[in-house]
Amino acid sequence: MSKTVPAHRAALGSTAVGVLAMLVALTAWSGFALSLRGASRSSLELADIAAIRFAVPALALAWRVPRTLRALRLENRGALAALCVGAGAPYVAIVAAGGALTSATFVGLMTPGTVPLAVAGLRAMSRRGTATRTQGLGLVLIGSGATAYAVRSDLPAEGIVLLALAAVLWGAYTLAVHETTLDPLDVTVLVAVPSAVAVAVVAMTGAMPSALLAGTAQAVDVVAFVVVQGLLVGVLSSVAYAAAARRLGAAAAAGFGTLSPAITALMATRAGEPLAGVTAVALVMVVAGSATPLVAKSASRLRKRHRGDVKLVAG
């Protein structure tokens, strides 16, 4: 008995840290979705936003690069590629393009809202797991909610496809975070540094326009995106989500992520986006789909723990 209690408390503490980290990431993600929607009204170009998103964490964590490089030698190359692409410059570019065509609420609904669908699909394709009944029900609710919103809101097909692709990329990133032994800081460095270099090369070669290089960027826009995209999303949410995925598991982290649409929608109403009836229904379905397997899993754990306590008392 004396040996099991510390282990149980340690597991409970790890879960609590994971949940707290996830809540931090959720808040930052909501600001991410809103800032992308507002990017079209700012003086910055897509290349500028991507540069800020990755250059800030790359510079802030430059001291960590040598240690990260040593840690990468022991990791699977496929997982490392999934980390770089799934949360790096390709992901941000796709989300930004999709967000410009749709709305902040739909950005939140699709990514991270539908990421559990992507995680389940990728696992099934790689034959690493199948969905249980409760997980299947949750996935149906999530998919139905996102689809209902897209259809009733008459969103352009291009935006829907782009954000669906972004959800798949983020699902691959989530699985890779859980499978590697890299700590959250190493994951953040791995995502930020290559992406910052790639965006800089693209901007300097003129392949994409840049207000920063042209000298037309307004200081207020630069400061706002440095705070939201660079610090909150690039550093804080990246470290927090990596920590949550390691402690909670890929499926649970993706499930908690579907709470982000509700937070984003509430913040979007403050920014002038109306919360229509179909939006509210879609949000309820996505959040309910997220909660269904998590609640079922928690109930199962409580039943197992209760049976264990009964056995100890009987013994």
Give a description of the structure.
The structure is a single chain. The protein is globular. The longest helix has 38 residues. Helix 5 packs antiparallel against helix 9. It has one domain. By secondary structure, it is mostly helical. The protein contains 15 helices and no strands.
Key structural traits:
mainly alpha, 15 helices, disordered N terminus
What structural category arises from helix and sheet content? mainly alpha
Q: Considering DSSP H and I runs of 4 or more, what fraction of the residues is helical?
A: over 70%
- Beta-strand percentage range: under 5%
Note the total helix count. Answer: 15
Determine the mean pLDDT. Answer: 79
User: How would a crystallographer describe the biggest sheet?
Assistant: none
Q: Gyration radius, to the nearest Å?
A: 20 Å
Count of individual domains:
1
> What coarse outline follows from CA principal-axis ratios?
globular
How many angstroms separate the termini?
12 Å
β-strand number = 0
Low-confidence stretches: 1-5, 309-313
H/E topology pattern: HHHHHHHHHHHHHHH
Q: How do the helices and strands line up, and which of them pair or pack?
A:
Elements: H1 4-39, H2 46-60, H3 65-72, H4 77-87, H5 89-101, H6 104-110, H7 115-125, H8 133-152, H9 157-179, H10 184-204, H11 211-214, H12 219-248, H13 250-257, H14 260-270, H15 277-314
Helix pairs in contact: 1-5, 1-6, 1-12, 1-14, 2-5, 2-10, 2-12, 3-10, 4-5, 4-9, 4-10, 5-9, 6-14, 7-9, 7-13, 8-15, 9-12, 9-13, 10-12, 12-13, 13-15
